[in-house]
Amino acid sequence: PYSLIDTYVLNDPFNGQANASLSTTSKNPFLQPEFTQELELGAQLEFFERRLAIDFTWYDKISSNQIAPLTIPASSGFLDYYANFGKIQNRGIELDVNGTLLKAKDLKWDMHLVFTKNKNTVLELTEGVDRIQLSDVLTDISPYLEKGKPFGYLRGSVNYRDKEGNLLIDPGTGLLIPSSEQEMVGDPNPDFKLGLGSTLSYKNFFVSAHFDWTQGGDIYSVTTNYLLGRGVTKDTENREQNFVIPGFYGDPNTGEPILDANGNKIPNTIQVTTNDLYFGNSFAINSQTEYNIYDATVYRFREFSIGYDLPKKLLANTPIGSATISLSGHNLWYFAPGVPKHTNFDPEVNSFGSTSVQGIELSAAPTTRRFGVNLKLTF
Length: 379
Fold this sequence. Notes:
Blueprint: E1 9-10, E2 20-21, E3 25-26, E4 35-47, E5 52-71, E6 80-103, E7 107-124, E8 131-133, E9 141-146, E10 153-159, E11 168-169, E12 178-186, E13 192-202, E14 205-215, E15 218-221, H1 222-229, E16 248-249, H2 274-279, E17 293-295, E18 298-309, E19 322-335, E20 360-361, E21 370-378
Parallel strand pairs: 3-6, 11-16, 15-20
Antiparallel strand pairs: 1-2, 4-5, 5-6, 6-7, 7-13, 8-9, 9-10, 10-12, 13-14, 14-18, 15-17, 18-19, 19-21
């Protein structure tokens, strides 16, 4: 409702004079509401006297008339304006399974599995608009919308390659050649997510554990970039060896391969030091953003707790209805196979919280391991 009319914002007085300013984003009185159409099919099934319960959903959701700021020439007095645009499709499945594996007089073992898979695709944009920048994060990388690509895909700087995809190497340095055009460098959306929880109880004691698995998705990491570029992890400990970057010589001015007298591409044979490999125009600091994109797959021991429910007879003459004491640990272990081993980088971090910007980490605070003692009372 506050994106329809341009209004002035009153600023702090300057030298005793009142002043006001307009936002750099122009409002649009012709905005239409967003709409979503969804087809959803599901089933809730229970077996073996409710010892196994399955909840399954398949959905196909199309959202139209999305609202976003579109870039306009600065000569208009604004940098962008709010407008309705195109269609976005979300299609996926959700699976929730609860099972009791063991049930005896004083012993019970329950399992809970949750699986989600979602694929989103931009189907249409406003006529005449090739792509929309969701957020202006960095010059070399930001999330975008573009027809036929996933929501919020990462677009950034890349290196020149030949038609077969081989890297082109600067014959003067032995390092990579930055391209003059940006391209898609990653998709932050995971392939799927899976959670597995288990609770084992015996009389008044109980033990529970929870594991997570996030498969796929890409993340741009400034932390990993700087750790490698500054040489502060064991990933760069081999500093006595020189390296040859696989590829062919290319012209830094044209981005085309350099050919020999017979018209063949010339393989790179120039050796570079470890310092140049990670600090030069290559794979870490000073490199193009395509080489700071990592697979965000992560396996995680999310939570473990052990506790005890006080017997009711001990609380009989008190106002307390029930009492439970437990010890718990969170984020106890994780393994991210897609990032350099000794950086200890956790792909779950995010510099932008609950916004639409995903898969970009700008020196965010690392995730933490937490331990706690919990006392729960009911009255």
